[in-house]
Amino acid sequence: MKNYSLRTSLYFILPALVIILAINIFPIIYAVWISFQNWSLAYVRPPQYTGFYNYEDALFFDDRFINAVFVSLKFVFLAVLIEFILGFSLAFLFNQKLKALNFLRVVSLTPIMVMPVVSGLIWFYMFNENFGVLTYLVTLLGFDKPGWLTDPDIALFSIVLADVWQWTPFVMLIFFAALQSLPEYVYEAAKMDGLNKIQIFFRITLPLLKPAIWIVLILRIIDSFKMLELILMMTKGGPGGYTEVLPWYLYTTGFITLDIGYGASMAVMMLILVTILSQFFVKKIEGKN
Amino acid sequence: MNYTKKFITTIVISVFFLSSHAYSGVLDGGKTIRILGIGDPVFQAMQKILPELEKMAGGKIELDVRGFDPLRQQILLNSKNKESDYDLIAVDLPQFGEYTPFLTDMSSMVASSSIDPSDFYQVAWAGGIHDGGKVLGIPLQPHPEIFAYRKDIFAKYGLAAPKSTDDVINAAKIIHESEPGMAGVCWNAGRGTPLGQAFIMTQGAFGQASIDLDRSGDGFTFASITDSNMRPMIDTPSGRATAQYFLDLMKYSPDGILNMAWDERVRVFSQGGCAMTYIWSGRSAIYENDPDSKAKGKVGYLPHPHGPGAYNMSTLGGWYLSIPKNIDPERADLAWSVIEWLTSKEMLQLYTKHGNCVSPRPDVSQEPSVQAQCPVIGWVDAMAQFDLLAGWQRPPVPEIQGIVDTMGVEMHEMISGGKTLDEAITTSQKKLERMMKKAGYSY
User: Fold this and answer.
1) Can you tell me whether residue B97 is helix, strand or coil?
2) Range A62-288: architecture per CATH
3) Rg (CA), chain A
4) What is the pLDDT of residue A3?
């Protein structure tokens, strides 16, 4: 009877397992296989096995790849930090029981609904140095035209600003939901114990929000690492390579230069990097549980 | 008498109708043609008049128009299909080297058709012939990248037309520093393909192709390319002079130059934001046909200004119509008929009325109505007659996009201040040599 149940269970699981293997695991294995080939769509010749040549090329000879990794890390750090601080603060603001905030709460979610490509296009035109509204406003205030997207010192921050505009509401939403679910009785007990507001925040609210904090960090870090659309629409990695994040370099290699093998090797390395980072946070969440 | 008059009138009208719609009905019976095009003036003109075209053809035209890089991606991906998703594809002149194995040889179709190669500019027709004389593309929108300057502004400052790169810098400096709200020169300084293309064409103006092609007359030839021709020629005096020229141009360029590409440079020039611009001739319609443009009717055209010791020579590029090799064999004749129709004199004239200031045929270029609509066509016609157009600056080899991409990235880092000229040039040379080695060339 027990064996029969196990077999029946396997029959039920099998379709889902096959689908997962086909659409999830197979592409990863295939990408790893491609990464060991010298394969460009620009040639008629078939892929040639080259071992670790593509990996060696990226890690030891391609300064553009190394630069892209560092730009990605810089972008992720800046974007997630600012989104976290702003989202966290806004969640507390919107958690206040004020009727006037209801409308703002709804409106503040609008940026999440915009497609990232559209968001990139909007910000590209707002930052445009010849026609952009932000440039116009800055010059009205008497400043020189800033090179929003062309000044090496500013360009990455402009991309971060566009990303923050789009994803801060998402962070706010998660923290807002977490705040709403905190039990009232804990706060009442804390007040009876004589804790002040600051003590309540650090000893009650923050520890209770930790799972939400880890979830926000894991989702935003992974998502920011994959960000491509803003670069595509706003800078194409320029000026120089100051905004060239890893997904953009990967995209240009795989889909513009059509060097599929090299692009796949970068994709595999990116997958490893993101997996290591995400596992760190997953462990934190599991440890907490 | 009355009957004779009516008869003659009918004949005259019929002849006129037949000659002006020589290939109309090419899709009669509700046939469909699938075209993969580029977001350049000729296909944009087709998009504008698509219902009219379909009415003339008597069937459906599926026109899939894409940007430069997505088009190349789609062509190469389509080439891997067992059967092509398109009947006709747009091919840029330097990309023939990459696409040769994927294109149908149309030599026999040309031989048995109404198309006469001598009706086209010789240099334009030759651009579609590759791989030992195979006709792989029929010229649709072949046009050169030329140099445009504001005649009124030059006259105001007593400047002569800029024939050399030194002239460009001198004029740009004077205008940039004296004319309020106007920068010296607009050019493609956007990262990647725009700047990469600018580099290899400008290096041509400094007298060198980006790879080691054999010399032929005042230029080079890519008639038979061997391994020894594939050596990158970036770390050379001409490569360094080109990079220095870019650094000099930066001083007299408009705001946002580091993001500037084909559309933006013409738009800024059109609005009076710069006195000179590099421009693909077909795009001049953007301001020549715009009554609000500050540049309309005030522009002079020249071939690319030359560097020291080199010649004025503009790069011929632009678009050809080709048939993919993996087309369903039963659709090949239909595809060819549509090529005949779309490249006919009447159709080419029609495109010029809708913003495509390019003509691959002298008989169209010399039409007074066409020259009135598109003054640049007369200038380009003259350049073609004086042999000032050439294609060797962008040799049709499979690695051309790799060269363009590398130069577009390295030069951008240099003009952004992230690398010195020496670092950018030596790094580019090393990267390209590694790319050639990976591709299997030995030289």
Assistant:
1) helix
2) Orthogonal Bundle (1.10)
3) 24
4) 59
DSSP string, B154-221: HHHTTPPP--BHHHHHHHHHHHHHHSTT-EEEE---STTHHHHHHHHHHHHHTT--SB-PEEETTEEE
CA dist B269 and B182 (Å) reads 9
Contacts of A276 (CB under 8 A, 6+ apart): none
Residue B395: cis peptide before it, omega within 30 degrees of 0: no
CA A79, distance to chain mean position in Å, is: 9
Which domain covers residue B85, as residue numbers?
Answer: 2-142+318-384
Is B307 in the same domain as B329?
A: no
Query: What span, in angstroms and rounded, lies between the C-alpha atoms of B186 and B278?
Result: 7
Size of interface A-B (CB pairs under 8 A): 97
Q: Of the candidates B369, B384, B399, which is a domain's last residue?
A: B384
- Distance between CA B287 and CA B304 in Å, rounded? 20
Name the amino acid, one letter, at B394. R
Angstroms from A158 CA to nearest CA on chain B: 14
Q: Is residue B102 domain-shared with residue B158, that is, in the same domain?
A: no
Tokens of A212: 């939400």
CATH of the domain at B363: 3.40.190.10
Q: How many domains does chain B have?
A: 2
* Mean pLDDT per 10-residue section of chain A, whose length is 289 residues: 74 91 91 93 82 92 92 96 96 85 85 94 91 91 90 94 96 94 90 90 91 92 94 91 94 87 95 89 73
ipTM: 0.72
Does one domain contain both B199 and B218?
yes
Most A CBs within 10 Å, among B74, B78, B413, B415, to test the A interface? B413
Domain assignments of chain A as residue spans, ordered by start: 62-288
Regarding whether B134 and B178 lie in a shared domain, the answer is no
The closest alpha carbon to B191, from A239, A107, A174, A132, belongs to A239
B138 and B150, same domain (yes or no)? no
Q: Measure the CA–CA gap between B50 and B286, rounded to whole angstroms.
A: 20
Is residue B335 within 8 A of residue B33, CB to CB? The reply is: yes
- How close, in Å, is residue A99 to chain B by CA atoms? 45
